[in-house]
Write a structure and sequence with these properties.
Length: about 110
């Protein structure tokens, strides 16, 4: 439940992570944050803001994107089929349909 919101003009990156309720999963999330930050720095991100917020992932990603005036939201997918996403729900699917900025998903 992660998304990277990017502002290319200023070179800044906002990374939003919705923490899981279990400490082992939260530790993995912290590792992911560190990896993403390192990759962003290697690619010239001038300023990185880390945000970890509990709550509904879709709403939190959209709220952070609006707060930071995001131009692009980049997020991973679990590879669900359209039917699977419909039945199980999909954070990326919902963000794409509700976001007011561009969105890109990666597998």
């Amino acid at each position: 439940r992660d998304a990277i919101a990017q502002k290319p003009a200023s070179g800044s990156v906002v990374y939003t992570h919705i923490p899981a309720p279990y400490s082992a999963v939260a530790a993995l999330g912290e590792e992911i944050l560190n990896d993403v930050e390192a990759i962003a720095r290697r690619h010239g991100a001038g300023r990185i803001t880390r945000v970890a917020v509990p709550g509904n992932p879709v709403q939190q990603i959209l709220d952070q994107a609006a707060k930071h005036k995001t131009d692009l939201i980049v997020m991973g997918t679990r590879g669900l089929t359209d039917f699977g996403a419909l039945v199980l729900g999909s954070v990326s699917h919902n963000v794409i349909h509700l976001a007011t900025c561009l969105c890109m998903t990666v597998k």
